[in-house]
Amino acid sequence: MLSKGLNDRAPKMEYPKNVEFVKNQPSLINTWLGEKRPLNTLEITELFMEIERNAVGLILLMGLIQVTKDKEIKNYLLKGKKLAKKQVDIFDKLLKENDHFIGFPITMEVRNSTISPFSERLILFIIATSNQIAISALADALSVSMRRDLAAHYFLVLGEVMRYGDEGLKLLIERGWMEQPPQPIDRNKFYKK
Question: Going by C-beta distance under 8 Å and a sequence separation of 6 or more, which residues neighbour residue 134?
Answer without folding.
Answer: 53, 57, 161
